[in-house]
Amino acid sequence: MYKLLKKQGSARRGEFTTPHGVVQTPVFMNVGTLAAIKGAVSTCDLKEIGCQVELSNTYHLSLRPGDKIIRKLGGLHKFMNWDRPILTDSGGFQVFSLSKIRKIKEEGVYFNSHIDGSKIFMGPEESMQIQSNLASTVAMAFDECIENPSPKDYVERSVERTTRWLKRCKVEMDRLNSLPDTINNKQMLFGINQGGVYDDIRIEHAKIISEMNLDGYAIGGLAVGETHEEMYRIIEKVVPHLPQDKPIYLMGVGTPANILEAVERGVDFFDCVLPARNGRHSHVFTSQGELNLLNAKYQLDDFPIDRGCQCPTCKNYTRAYIRHLFKAKEMLAMRLCVLHNLYFYNNLMKEIRDSIDGDYFPKYKREKLEEWNQ
């Protein structure tokens, strides 16, 4: 259940109540594809750096270790020792991005595993069954992910198929939640808005899926090649046509600036591999913008990554030391930078929530963008 606490313009401050706790929104979900954050960050670390929601991947976990194994071990929460909400994506994006050979049919998608090339089929029912075995808090509907740009007639057909698949997802999830041996029989379902960069297709699809009374709604198929301006335009067009009493999730986005712009346009949920991926490659986010700690100028720099930052890394280690760790190829370098970046994102979301609560979000956004652009 989503409760809107406050609005400033289109920016929303809310609470999302789930079977695994209440999420304060806007929120950034920390991406743990294979039930782990890349960079040797544990679930205990996640709590320390203020993570509210962890995101894992249906497709990857169905291959390794296998969703049936996770089910036998009591579900994903127990498996990875995490008692807060988990969102699992449907596997749709991975089917389309990782598989070179695939056949899309009405029943679902036939493709080859990116690990061993074995033949796999996944459709709406299979995606829901895997996610039910994982027992995540929120399951994402299985949709078709298309490239931007794609021909309009193809996008229209694809979106119609995604709608039919969403209806099948809902029926299957209702069935699974009614079974006596389902681990999480209160599993929630989010639908996904698609339509490429075509405003009219996006709006029409938003209206159709809004009538299905789902637990939340996502805007998918963005941050895949279109410009930032196109992305912001689509968000502005779509958000007013989604239910305002449900959370709105912008999938796979993005940079700190992207998040501020999307919050201003009414988005509540975010996820992105950027903070962890960049951290593993020595790039860190700070109040002064992004730094590359491999630069020679940090060799004798005995300041923390970001002065004033309260993350475990900044409270204990210097830029010079972390640079040395990267040069020496020590795994600790990645861990310290990923910890810092995820703290930066989670803290950014807390500051955004505080600014909406305090009626100064536009000022906060303007000042942050100015700081980062310097």
UniProtKB/TrEMBL annotation:
One Pfam entry name: TGT
Q: Which cofactor does it need?
A: Zn(2+)
Active site per database record: D89, D271
For the ligand (Zn(2+)), the binding residues are: C309, C311, C314, H340
SUPFAM superfamilies, per the entry:
tRNA-guanine transglycosylase
What's an example GO BP annotation here? tRNA queuosine(34) biosynthetic process
- EC number(s) reported in the record: 2.4.2.29
**Any idea where the tRNA-guanine(15) transglycosylase-like domain is?**
10-373
InterPro entries assigned: ArchSynthase1/Queuine_TRR, TGT, TGT-like_sf, tRNA_ribo_trans-like
- Residues reported to bind substrate: D89, S90, G91, G92, F93, D143, Q194, G221
Q: Where is this region: RNA binding?
A: 252-258, 276-280
Biological pathway? tRNA modification; tRNA-queuosine biosynthesis
Q: Gene3D superfamilies this protein is in?
A: Queuine tRNA-ribosyltransferase-like
Task: State a single Gene Ontology molecular function.
Answer: metal ion binding
Complexes and interactors = Homodimer. Within each dimer, one monomer is responsible for RNA recognition and catalysis, while the other monomer binds to the replacement base PreQ1.
Please state what the protein is called. Queuine tRNA-ribosyltransferase
- What organism, scientifically named, is this protein from? Clostridium ragsdalei P11
